[in-house]
Amino acid sequence: MQLKFGSYPVLVASSPEMAKQFLKIHDTVFASRPALAAGKYTSYNYLDMTWAPYGSYWRQARKIYLTEILSSKRLDSYEHIRVEERRNFLSRLYALSKLQVNGCGKPVLLREQLSRFSLSSITRMVLGNKYFSESKCGLEGSIITLDELQELLDQWFLLNGVINIGDWIPWLSFLDMQGYVKQMKDLYKKFDRFHEYVLDDHKAKMVSSGEDFVPKDMVDVLLQLAEDPNLEVQLTTDSVKGLMQDLLAGSTDTSPATVEWTFHEIIRKPHIIEKATEELDRVIGRERWVEENDLSKLPYIEAIIKETLRLHPLCTLLPPHFAIEDCNVSGYTVSKGTTVLVNVWSIGRKPQILGCT
């Protein structure tokens, strides 16, 4: 479907066949991003992976993620953090389930607890420490509370998904008619203060360690790479902040949302709970916790997660893609500068996906 957003052409791909054309067959043509205000003001002037235009910087950042930060070896080295936070999470849920108000059980807001669990795990792996306090009293080594950091991340997701009139009608951009750009600039200042605090702490530790310095978390890896003179594109402080922000934002909202939707679906279908419980009893038993290496032995539970992601994808529309040159797609000419939106929500509900006619 072709649309016109102000001055710019926009294509919406709502079928598996068209999504394959844009994301696989002609992926290099549509690998870039449009230059939207969100990328400029919330992502360090397009220096994160989400909004970086396709080119040498994007390719280098992708390589750093795949080989240095998200490699199997490095993720395995953080397993103890995930285990510890998972057990803390379950202990909190159990304690909350025992609370009484006027003789009745008190409701537990699952999303709130899932977000806390996810944020605690990710910040420890990415930053090496939580860097936030869990109450307004504050703790040494923190400049922000858990609720404040979660609010910043929620606002980041919101502002990165809005339709800003100035992006599509450039001559109106100076008016900031919806007030989004002002909100983005305010959010940038708050995030940058937090990032500066984290980086200053890490740099101080690097200096004190001297030649004996060994990276312990993902920010350490980025700072060490920033000093590498052999990189094709030198990493600046803003580059490190942008990539660090991707790791935080991209991991803290997705997992809680998926788990919450999974519970929402299986509670409506008791027979699925029975089958999942039977698989857990058969494969794991009731004498130990489920560990990460057990997941490959639980195909039914894996299928539940995949079905949840089909019904409730992490975003209705994938982040916009941008044509860097003219391209022929299925017999149609797509001109340079066209923005492409892939509707994964619609694709997941196509009858052919389920083998239906």
Topology (SSEs and partners):
Blueprint: E1 2-5, E2 8-13, H1 16-25, H2 37-42, H3 56-69, H4 72-77, H5 79-97, E3 100-101, E4 104-105, H6 110-127, H7 146-159, H8 165-168, H9 180-209, H10 218-226, H11 237-252, H12 254-267, H13 270-283, H14 299-311, E5 321-322, E6 327-329, E7 332-334, E8 339-342, H15 344-347
Parallel strand pairs: 2-8
Antiparallel strand pairs: 1-2, 3-4, 5-8, 6-7
Beta-strand content estimate? 5-15%
Q: Structural class of the secondary structure composition?
A: alpha+beta
CATH domain topology of the largest domain: Cytochrome p450
Domain module count? 3
Spell out the helices and strands N to C: EEHHHHHEEHHHHHHHHHEEEEH
Helix residue percentage: 40-55%
End-to-end distance: 22 Å
Q: What top-tier CATH class of the largest domain fits best? A: Mainly Alpha
Q: Rounded to an integer, what's the Rg over CA atoms?
A: 23 Å
Determine the mean pLDDT: 91
CATH architecture of the largest domain: Orthogonal Bundle
Describe the largest sheet.
4 strands, mixed
Question: If strands are numbered along the chain, what order do they take across the biggest sheet?
Answer: 1-2-8-5
